[in-house]
Amino acid sequence: MENGGVLDEQITASSELNDNSAAYQGRLNVNESVQGSTVKSGAWVAGTSDQSQWLQVDLYDKESLIRRVATQGRNQDDSWGLANSQWVERYNLQYSNDGRDFEYYHEQGKSKAKEFTGNTDENSIVSHDLIPPIRGRYIRFRPTAWHQHISMRVELYGCCDSLSVIVCEGQTMEIRCESISKIRVLWANYGRLNPETCTHPSIRTINCRASASLNNVRKVCQDKTACTLKSNSGSFGGDPCVGTYKYLLVGYKCDD
Question: Which residues form the F5/8 type C domain (predicted)?
Answer without folding.
Answer: 1-159
